[in-house]
Predict the structure of Transcriptional regulator.
Amino acid sequence: MDDLEFRRFLKIDVTVLEVWVEQGWLLPQSQDGARDFRDTDVARGRLILDLTQDMGVNDAGVDLIMDLIDQIHGLRGTLRDVLSVMAEQDEEVKRRLRGRLDELSGTVGL
């Protein structure tokens, strides 16, 4: 969706959108000099609105929260990769990895 569609969908003005993009809270794709907003941008926009309008979070707080969300998203991707590689290993390697993880976490049966 383009800038106008995005702004209408979230009911925000052009100044708000520009601030969000400048802050790096939204990272739309660019095609032929025009921005293209995806579903993830819409979800992030809704979250930003919730944070600022409903919860009263200031710009510095939004910046921190968005950074933490991006870190969590990155960590989830890394964990998926680790689990995928682990699943490819033979049973002995899997058993040893689970045992070591149990030792580290203090639990049994991960």
